[in-house]
Amino acid sequence: CTFCSLSCANIVKDKWKPLPLSVITEEIVKIYDMYGVSRFSLTDDDMLGPIEGAETRVKEFHDAIKKLPFDIKFSGSISVRAATNGKILDYLVDAGLEQLGIGFESADEEQLKRYNKQQRLEENFIAAKNIVERNINLIPGLITFDPFATKDTVEKNLKFLFEELGHYDLGKLTKKLHILTGTPMVKMIRD
């Protein structure tokens, strides 16, 4: 992404390394045994990694979680592309997904290009439909304002947020792009 200071695992091959599921489940059991906690937040910004292996990874994750001697609930984040696959969402929900974060970033084609996002605009709409159909509690990442935003881009983003996602978090109305030094977006603004 042009606004991110980290390279994307879908572009730089072998950048994303999955944590072995045995490590994850051992940590869950340890925390459960020590504190009785059965709700977890997975803090990886894309818990399934590159799209090519996402369905395999989610099935393995699902199977590992279902083998635990207790049920858990969890929140996590996946890519838009992963959310276009209903099977992936079904595995997550069955494993105990309570809340999902996804970086849609924009409902405007030009904005997505400007951000160098990997998903296509239609994938945002497919993912939104899949999420809404499954009644998944969503934290949508949507950048309403950037230095090049127009009335039209803002309207498209708000229409997507309200009509496609049925999400009325007024905080999303004020989200703006924070420009990080050294990112491609800095060059775009200077040019």
Brief summary:
The protein is an alpha/beta fold and 191 residues long.
Describe the structure.
With 191 residues, the protein is of the alpha/beta class. The protein contains eight helices and four strands, in the order H-E-H-E-H-H-E-H-H-E-H-H. The protein has helices at residues 21-35, 54-66, 80-83, 86-95, 109-115, 121-133, 151-164, 184-190, and strands at 39-41, 73-77, 97-105, 138-142. A four-stranded parallel sheet has the order 1-2-3-4. Helix 2 (54-66) runs parallel beside helix 4. The model has no long low-confidence stretch (mean pLDDT 87).
Task: Break the fold down into its secondary structure elements and pairings.
Blueprint: H1 21-35, E1 39-41, H2 54-66, E2 73-77, H3 80-83, H4 86-95, E3 97-105, H5 109-115, H6 121-133, E4 138-142, H7 151-164, H8 184-190
Parallel strand pairs: 1-2, 2-3, 3-4
Helix pairs in contact: 2-4
Keywords for this structure?
globular; four-stranded parallel sheet; 8 helices; 191 residues; 12% strand; alpha/beta
Q: How many β-strand runs?
A: 4
SS strand fraction: 5-15%
Oligomer description: single chain
- The DSSP helix count reads 8
Helix content: 40-55%
Largest sheet: 4 strands, parallel
Which regions are unreliable across 5 or more consecutive residues at pLDDT < 50?
Answer: none
Largest sheet, order of strands side by side? 1-2-3-4
Report the end-to-end length measured between terminal Cα atoms.
Answer: 18 Å
What is the string of SSEs from the N terminus onward?
HEHEHHEHHEHH
What is the global morphology?
Answer: globular
Q: Quote the average pLDDT.
A: 87
Radius of gyration: 18 Å
Q: Tell me the structural class.
A: alpha/beta
